[in-house]
Amino acid sequence: MADIATVAQAWRFPVDQSTWKGHRSLQLREVKLSPPRKGEVLVRLYAAALNYRVDSTGPDGQGLIPTSDGAGEVVAVGEGVTQWKKGDRVHSLFFETWLDGPILPEHNFQALGAGTPGAYILNNLAKTILRTFKVETLLPIPDHLSYEEAATIPCAALTAWNSFFERKPITNKSTVLVLGSGGVSVFGAQLAKAAGARVIATTSSEAKAQKYRALGVDEVVNYREYPEWSVKIKELTDGKGVEQVLEVGE
């Protein structure tokens, strides 16, 4: 592992929280890198997705590295690692300590890019981006997905999946509504269509509406054209409404 640098740089939240003015206040600071230890792997990240939470999380008083979604290639493995090998394509998990069962309050404090360092460390020497992960906090990237596509999965895609398929799974007989056209909503629309559901979406422009239709969304309501968009939804469903609504709040 002699070719792996020991010092890198990363964009971090400022330690002084009073200086925070959004993502433009991120500071490029030095971080130390170490070879993967027992049960860890080192990943060269080729893509990281930016979510609204990067700007809304804000400083934590410790100079945390933001971003919660990363995808890349395993470049080194630590002692005892058999799940992964050098060259494997992987993406990160949003909650590194929540692997199964009900989510608990303490899991929220270990979210990637919120409670633990994010997936974006720049190694100036090798012109790469590196991060060490525990073996259980990675998943394989399907062959048909690029690194950029896979990097969008951990936060937005799984939020949408959890909304539609965990507590009360939708079916091919469901009619659902997705509000807006951000990452979670767009993923929700695609997942719902894949399940055979009828999907209605709201958005703010015809250009966005066309993109939704290209993804197979059944009906799109422009809420600027219909400020009382709920009335339009009732019309489209013969007064029945929808079984589930995917609403993305801050």
Provide structural commentary:
It is an enzyme of class 1 (oxidoreductase). One of its GO terms (molecular function) is oxidoreductase activity. InterPro entries: ADH-like_C, ADH-like_N, ER, GroES-like_sf, NAD(P)-bd_dom_sf, Zinc_ADH-like. It contains seven helices and twelve strands. By secondary structure, the protein is α+β, with helices and mostly antiparallel strands. The chain has two domains: 7-154, Quinone Oxidoreductase, Chain A, domain 1 (Alpha-Beta Complex); 168-246, NAD(P)-binding Rossmann-like Domain (Rossmann fold), CATH 3.40.50. The strands form two sheets. The protein has an eight-stranded antiparallel sheet. Strands 11-10-9-12 form a four-stranded parallel sheet, sandwiched between helices. Helix 4 (153-165) crosses helix 5. It is elongated and about 65 Å long. The termini are far apart.
